[in-house]
């Protein structure tokens, strides 16, 4: 794939990852294994509230094709087939779910030095169509996406965005929800090694006149430990600590606390991931 502006879904992703990635209120235990045949197996158990769920996933790569199959505790099967370079500079993704046959989707991504294009088609009798495109460079990118329902003949969504990437910072603005919301985010690395970063995000919904302002940060304490924290203008405080307890065994602990709630309830989550 060529180096270009990236997909539309990449706009705002850096700020989103710092503020949301790995935060959880669940208890998760995952085990990763690799077979001699080159198949990667993942077993995951999740406890959320009083309910326990889990799934088993198998990932296999053969030349330019990637096979991914997942089976959960309710016997739902999800399969994803990813093929690179059927046509130069493209990636094709086909996904199916059983027994939910109508949940399938076919997606084609095209990458160019100065543009990317994605189209996704639902595999059912009345397919919804999603299209997105970006133009620019790895430094600055403009993009838009739209969704169209062929049954009703209406647009389900349309969104535009812009991102600017510099060696020590990243900024983005996204106008979404059919023009009803705007989100602006900024990430700044505080050191050349990028071990620490500060992030700010402003979200406004015009129909409700609601504003949400969130600030957060990430700090790499050492090569084994990462800490993150965030707080918004509604008093919701979150913190996360991720540590490699032993080689290839990752422990993540996170919690969120509403400082303005009368009951002062806090939610906590942790995950353990074992890799070979």
Automatic annotation (TrEMBL):
Localization, per the record, is: Membrane
Gene Ontology MF term list: porin activity; voltage-gated monoatomic anion channel activity
Going by the UniProt record, its keywords in alphabetical order are: Ion transport, Membrane, Porin, Transmembrane, Transmembrane beta strand, Transport
Entry GO terms, CC: mitochondrial outer membrane; pore complex
Does the keyword Transport feature in the UniProt annotation? yes
Q: Which family does it belong to?
A: Belongs to the eukaryotic mitochondrial porin (TC 1.B.8.1) family.
According to UniProt, the name of this protein is Mitochondrial outer membrane protein porin 2-like
Species of origin reads Hevea brasiliensis
Q: What is the lineage of its organism?
A: Eukaryota, Viridiplantae, Streptophyta, Embryophyta, Tracheophyta
């Amino acid at each position: 794939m060529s180096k270009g502006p990236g997909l539309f879904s990449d706009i705002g992703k850096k700020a989103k990852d710092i503020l949301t990635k790995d935060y959880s209120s669940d208890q998760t235990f995952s085990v990763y294994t690799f077979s001699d045949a080159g198949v990667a197996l993942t077993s995951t158990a999740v406890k959320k509230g009083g309910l326990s769920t889990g799934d088993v996933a198998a990932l296999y790569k053969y030349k330019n094709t990637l096979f991914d199959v997942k089976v959960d505790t309710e016997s739902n099967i999800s399969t994803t087939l990813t093929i690179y370079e059927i046509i130069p500079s493209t990636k094709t993704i086909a996904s199916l779910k059983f027994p939910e046959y109508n949940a399938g989707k076919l997606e084609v991504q095209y990458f160019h030095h100065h543009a990317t294009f994605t189209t996704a088609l639902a595999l059912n009798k009345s397919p919804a169509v999603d299209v997105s495109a970006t133009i620019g460079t790895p430094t600055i990118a403009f993009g838009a996406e739209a969704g169209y329902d062929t049954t009703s003949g209406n647009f389900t969504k349309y969104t535009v965005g812009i991102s600017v990437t510099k060696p020590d910072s990243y900024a983005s603005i996204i106008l979404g929800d059919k023009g009803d919301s705007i989100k602006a985010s900024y990430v700044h690395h505080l050191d050349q090694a990028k071990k620490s970063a500060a992030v700010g995000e402003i979200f406004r919904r015009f129909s409700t006149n609601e504003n949400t302002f969130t600030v957060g940060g990430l700090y790499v304490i050492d090569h084994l430990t990462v800490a993150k924290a965030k707080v918004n203008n509604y008093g919701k405080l979150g913190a996360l600590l991720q540590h490699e307890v032993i080689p290839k065994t990752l422990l993540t602990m996170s919690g969120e606390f509403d400082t303005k709630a009368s009951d002062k309830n806090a939610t906590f989550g942790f995950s353990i991931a074992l890799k070979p």
